[in-house]
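pinned: reference chain
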Amino acid sequence: MSGFRPSIRILAAVSVTATALLLSVSHANAATPKASTHTAKPSKSATHSTKSATHSKQTVAQQNYTFYDSTVPSEIPAHQLIAAYADGDYKVPRSSVSDPATVIWIDVNGGDANATALDVEPGDATPAEAAVWVRTRLTDHPDATAVVYTMRSEWAATKASVATLPASMQSKVRWWIADPTGVPHIVPGSQATQWYWGADYDINSALPGF
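pinned: its structure tokens
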């Protein structure tokens, strides 16, 4: 942004006589504009451009992201964020993935507080076991979050279980909800949604900070 001020010049006619010189200088001083003390405000277009740039940066920073999960991580397209099983029938050895620290590790039975997420669905952890797992995970890892995966049909019961925990723990729970419509979306109230079920892998959308 820049302000505009007119340059000031004093033009004085030079005369061979002292009288003419004084008259010329007096006339020049009377005609000379005073320097403005008003600081120019940024133009509307400049202000709009600044706001647009700020909005664009915020939009980029807050974009949702995609990750994949599979019982066989090698089936997932390369260079994608993934979720894999930490235990159970489809346990994936941490040594088999290129960067274990970036993987969302799923616990299927509630016995691994080092896992990132708990799988609450028929055949795996129950809604009642969710609160126990969340408490254990956040006690062992107080700076972490506790992701709970479940279906819409199990969500109410699972939330009721987690609601028995202290508010400080509830605030660190992240909901990952299965809703396989085939269209990218995030179920209201959740932080991630598994919206596609495929033969080789599933696809999920997540909010920043999931």
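why pinned: The first strand starts at residue 65 and ends at 69. The chain has a mean pLDDT of 80.
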